[in-house]
Amino acid sequence: MKRKTHVMQRGLTLLEMMIALLLLSMLLMLLFGGLRLASSSWDRGSAFTDQVSQMQLVENFMRREISQAAAYRLQQDPQDPKAVLLGYQGSAKRLRFVAPMPQAAAKGGLYVLTFGLSQQEGGQQALTLWREPTDKAGSPSLANPENEAADAPVILARHVSHLEFSYYGVPAGSTQPATWLPDWPDNQNAPQLIKMKIAFDGGASWPDLVVAPRVDMAAAANVR
């Protein structure tokens, strides 16, 4: 009788161990699943934080440079030294102007800055900054930002699907009220506002960047 009881007790113990192992495996599966979910959430949160940080850096830089644009005489045609271009030159896809660059980002001094799209490997597009020092011989032309005098282009944001600049104001000679325009043909006056829209592959986009230029075009008469 005792032997039979001992066998039954041993059998119950083995069954309990099997149940315990099954429960343990289920708990481990839940634990690892939770860890994977937490890791995935962390990665998504980290990627989002990186995107926000990049957006803030780029927008703060562009806002500072656009608002600090300088009235400057630039030779538009090397064959005609009297031809000058002042202030901003803007289209829907490209924005050019003269502004100071900090010593940490360049050699310092006034630069011709061009913001636009460049083609990268794999067919993707990138928001790009071209910089050309104004102290280069011959006063740099704005006709070709990718010339030999320009510094190496700077990639500000990759995988861009859409970039659009627009300009709010009244060009010289216009009798229409101030409105948003796809181009800014008036080099003698600065627009009241400049807006940039940018979207990325996959559907993401940044909030519109709107900047009020502070350049004094009347001061151009006293600049070289």
Label this structure with key terms.
224 residues; alpha+beta; 5-stranded antiparallel beta sheet; 4-stranded antiparallel beta sheet; 1 helix; 29% helix; elongated
Secondary-structure-based class equals alpha+beta
* Percent range for β-strand residues: 25-35%
**Overall body shape:** elongated
Catalogue the unreliable spans: 137-143
Overall mean pLDDT stands at: 76
Strand order of the largest sheet: 3-4-5-6-7
Could you give the order of the helices and strands? HEEEEEEEEEEE
- The separation of the N and C termini measures 115 Å
What kind of sheet is the major sheet? 5 strands, antiparallel
Tally of separate helices: 1
**Number of extended strands:** 11
Radius of gyration: 31 Å
* Oligomerization category of the chains in this entry: single chain
Helical amount: 25-40%
